[in-house]
Specification:
- By secondary structure, the chain is mainly alpha-helical.
- The chain is 53% helix and 6% strand.
- It contains five helices and two strands; from the N terminus they run H-H-H-H-E-H-E.
- It has a two-stranded antiparallel sheet with strand order 1-2.
- Helix 1 packs antiparallel against helix 2 and helix 1 runs parallel beside helix 3.
- It is globular.
- The mean pLDDT is 83.
Amino acid sequence: MTVAPRRVSRRLPDYGWAWPHGSLDLLLKAILLDDEAQALQIGLDWLEAQDLDEVTFSQHRLLVALADRFGRRLSASPSWPRLVGLQRNLWTRSRLSLRDATGALQAFSKAGIRFMVIKGASRIALDPGAQRGRIAHDIDLLVQR
């Protein structure tokens, strides 16, 4: 006896609401697929089908990952100059956020408040060369009670 797979709903509490679909699914595949040639083609196809002025901030973050993975191999796309500009803009804004947080982090340290930088900012602390691929406008901390 064969059982048909359960239909996934896009509503809570089912997991389907978080499952990527449409262009987001394709962008994730371009970043994550092991097959370099297939991933690159999906990335180029995605860039051709999208207006970079209309993409969301979460897609911006993924586009930086795409550019980080393929670099100049994406230059065949007419969107390449816009993608490079987007990457520079987001990198600059991230650097400004890190700079602006320095005073608060120093104040925590001077006050004896123990904290740990996590996620992207910790990646940069461990490997300054990783900052090219970091884009965020916040810094996540764990603070000891």
